[in-house]
């Protein structure tokens, strides 16, 4: 009987080595799943970058199609450097204006006289006025430093203060208004004599009475005011009438009544007295001369007792009043007894002792017209669409230049082109295929223990993009090219229809054809600057326009591009999100298979070892029996 022997034992192989080899063969599916996971994770990273680049392009495109896109931003400068700076909106008209800075606006600066440094000031209060504001300082008593602190704490919004020590025994206090302009000069009321003892003001005087001027209204020259709102003003039966008792206004009427030209002083107001019933609120106004033309101010005012108060000085200080606008929106007639111009006296009752600098207004001339303002900064009500700051007086007239600022629009377009090219280059790279090679992902049967992703597959993947053949990316590349090279309707005269019109193309005439085919955009900076300077609105319309005039942007390079990018970046059901989700599910599935197979390998290895142990025991037993039989069986005689 032949003995049963193991091949491994016959060849001298160790049983453990044989078990390891068998387990390793059984491990092959794990290696394949791990390789597939590695490939899937790389794809997830690539899809993540696709999302980043499409989002970036989406952001840059939205900046171009936004209503605030700075294509038509204009800048303000002067022919002499440093005279004026500012910004202009799209409404500003480009061109040059003659400009002369006569006087800068300045703050009111006061200085006290020398007083004893150790002076003790009494308890009390005083009031500080600047423009329309006032602050009352309650002083508990003390030295100069306590007075300075009280002013900073209670009137710091109106003036700044400091103490200058002249020598060891004497000091002075200086005061400076926070705001510039003649109206903002500092005035003081000092009933307790605190500021006088501090050397700042003189004797406190009694306040004088207001000045009142009864205005003579000429009703015979009254003109209809705002017929669209006060519809009965033209009816002969409802016209304004004037008697010795006053002016009578019928319901639903309004008139502008001329007066003798009268100057409106600071803080002056119109006091309108009525007789009989009158509404709680009445609309009234005034006409006044400002900068060479007649202006109107018309607004609702409330009644106090039998009078209405209209703050004329708030709108036309130092201007000439030329007319009064009266109206009646009530259902019953109104009788106006009188209109009085009241000019309050200056609130200050104590004059400063020493003025270091007068409070002055800015004085400028634009095209020969003199204009005054309280401040040197943020002047936005002189030229339409322009806000500017004045920095110094001019010795002679200079040129105010208002021109399109192409820098912001150019930078915005460059960022958009860069974002477009980054997405295009990355998309082509990840979908590229080697010209002389073919991608093969053929695998051996999953039933075979040798099944694995082939070497050819990975060799080809190293020579081509990981998303080669991915239709969604190939479709994106094609759509980007089509959008960049399409014609668009020009909604305005001299508009642009294609990107090449503004200096953006895939290459200049005569460029390498292969580079043009790549679809990357190039900018002719000189041409782009020229069109942005001459026709910024045309550039804007090329990216986003409203051909139907329905207040909705529906056409243009930017609008189409946003439509193309939208499916890729949708959060819930976007292309990128869906692709990543499928890959993550595949990785999770493979990880589950790996875990289950690893558990199987532990059991498989244990069974192999047990079987080899039984076999080795059986072989050993067979050997013992064989040896016994061989040694104990009788041998026959050759002669028998």
UniProtKB/TrEMBL annotation:
GO CC, one annotated term: bacterial-type flagellum filament cap
Localization per record: Bacterial flagellum; Periplasm; Periplasmic flagellum
UniProt record, GO biological process: bacterial-type flagellum-dependent cell motility; cell adhesion
Coiled-coil annotated spans: none
Pfam families: FliD_C, FliD_N
Organism superkingdom: Bacteria
Flagellar hook-associated protein 2 C-terminal domain residues: 359-623
Domain Flagellar hook-associated protein 2 N-terminal: 12-108
Sorted UniProt keywords: Bacterial flagellum, Cell projection, Cilium, Coiled coil, Flagellum, Periplasm
Function: Required for morphogenesis and for the elongation of the flagellar filament by facilitating polymerization of the flagellin monomers at the tip of growing filament. Forms a capping structure, which prevents flagellin subunits (transported through the central channel of the flagellum) from leaking out without polymerization at the distal end.
Assembly information from the UniProt record: Homopentamer.
Listed name of the protein: Flagellar hook-associated protein 2
Organism: Leptospira kemamanensis
């Amino acid at each position: 009987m032949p003995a049963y022997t193991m091949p491994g034992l016959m060849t001298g192989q160790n049983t453990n080595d044989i078990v390891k080899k068998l387990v390793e063969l059984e491990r092959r599916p794990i290696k394949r799943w791990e390789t597939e996971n590695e490939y899937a994770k790389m794809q997830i990273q690539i899809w993540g970058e696709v999302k980043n680049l499409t989002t970036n392009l989406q952001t840059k495109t939205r900046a171009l199609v936004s209503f605030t896109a700075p294509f038509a931003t204009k800048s303000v400068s002067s022919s002499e450097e440093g005279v004026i700076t500012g910004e202009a909106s799209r409404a500003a008209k480009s061109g040059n204006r003659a400009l002369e800075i006569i006087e800068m606006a300045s703050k009111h600066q006061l200085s006290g006289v020398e007083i004893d440094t150790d002076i003790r000031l009494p308890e009390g209060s005083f009031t500080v006025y600047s423009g329309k504001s006032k602050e009352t300082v309650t002083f508990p008593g003390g030295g100069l430093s306590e007075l300075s602190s009280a002013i900073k704490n209670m009137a710091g919004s109106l003036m700044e203060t400091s103490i200058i020590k002249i020598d060891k025994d004497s000091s002075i206090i200086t005061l400076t208004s926070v705001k510039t302009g003649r109206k903002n000069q500092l005035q003081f009321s000092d009933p307790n004599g605190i500021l006088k003892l501090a050397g700042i003001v003189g004797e406190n005087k009694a306040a004088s009475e207001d000045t009142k001027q009864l205005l003579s209204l000429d009703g015979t020259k009254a003109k209809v005011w705002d017929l669209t709102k006060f519809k009965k003003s033209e009816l002969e039966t409802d016209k304004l009438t004037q008697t010795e008792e006053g002016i009578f206004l019928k319901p639903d009427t309004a008139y502008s009544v001329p007066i003798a030209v009268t100057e409106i002083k600071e803080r002056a107001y119109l006091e309108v007295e009525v007789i009989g019933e009158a509404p709680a609120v009445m609309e009234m106004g005034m006409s006044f001369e400002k900068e060479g033309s007649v202006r109107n101010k018309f607004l609702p005012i409330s009644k106090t007792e039998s009078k209405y108060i209209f703050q004329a000085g708030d709108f036309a200080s130092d201007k000439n009043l030329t007319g009064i606008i009266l109206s009646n929106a009530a259902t019953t007639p109104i009788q106006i007894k009188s209109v009085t111009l009241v000019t309050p006296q200056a609130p200050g009752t104590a004059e400063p002792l020493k003025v270091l600098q007068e409070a002055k207004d800015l004085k400028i001339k634009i095209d020969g017209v003199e204009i005054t303002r309280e401040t040197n900064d943020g002047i936005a009500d002189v030229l339409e669409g322009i806000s500017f700051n004045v920095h110094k007086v001019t010795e002679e007239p200079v040129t105010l230049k208002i021109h399109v600022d192409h820098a912001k629009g150019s930078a915005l377009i460059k960022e958009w082109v860069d974002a477009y090219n980054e997405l295009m280059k990355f998309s082509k790279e990840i979908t590229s295929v080697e010209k002389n090679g073919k991608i093969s992902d053929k695998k051996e049967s999953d039933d075979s223990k040798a099944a694995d992703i082939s070497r050819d597959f990975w060799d080809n993947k190293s020579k081509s993009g990981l998303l080669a053949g991915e239709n969604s990316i190939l479709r994106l590349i094609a759509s980007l090219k089509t959008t960049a090279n399409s014609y668009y309707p020009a909604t305005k005269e001299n508009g642009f229809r294609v990107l090449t019109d503004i200096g953006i193309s895939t290459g200049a005439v005569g460029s390498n054809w292969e580079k043009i085919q790549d679809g990357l955009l190039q900018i002719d900076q000189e041409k782009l600057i020229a069109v942005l300077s001459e026709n910024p609105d045309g550039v804007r319309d090329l990216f986003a326009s409203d051909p139907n005039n329905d207040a909705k942007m529906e056409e243009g390079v930017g609008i189409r591009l946003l439509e193309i990018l939208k499916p890729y970046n949708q959060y819930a059901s976007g292309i990128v999100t869906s692709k990543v989700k499928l890959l993550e599910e595949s990785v999770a599935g493979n990880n589950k298979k790996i875990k289950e197979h690893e558990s199987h390998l532990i059991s498989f290895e244990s069974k192999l070892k047990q079987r080899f142990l039984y076999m080795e025991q059986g072989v050993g037993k067979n050997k013992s029996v064989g040896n016994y039989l061989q040694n104990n069986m009788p041998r026959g005689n050759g002669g028998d």
